[in-house]
Amino acid sequence: MVSMTRRAFYRLVQEALEGLPRELRERVENIAVVVEDLPPQDILDEMGIEDPFDLLGLYQGVSLDRRGFFYGNVLPDKISLYQRPIEARSRSKEETVRTIREVILHEMGHYFGLDDEDLLALLGEEGEDDPGGC
Asked: Is position 17 within any domain?
């Protein structure tokens, strides 16, 4: 397990966001990316997840493909990354970096309206487990 300060973890999140393909970065607007220790209990309950370490990230908002003329004057969508579950799955800083990148790509995929099959293809992990995001 890797353990780091919130500042160091958030710096890795920033680097992952800056490392997104330009085509994605240019299309992202009105979205907040936050880091929390663990997912809130109400979210876990709503999703039917018992172990908080099973959820690495979460997208909350209205995906681009579901926005219409009515969409406007709204609070930003939100991507949450859960630091302790990500650290618990990592044995090195490199694994932490890779996991953060995968979770951000997964949650950005939901922002763009991709389904789980498309997300797996985006991550290049066809047939492997989901990186723990929703």
From this structure: yes
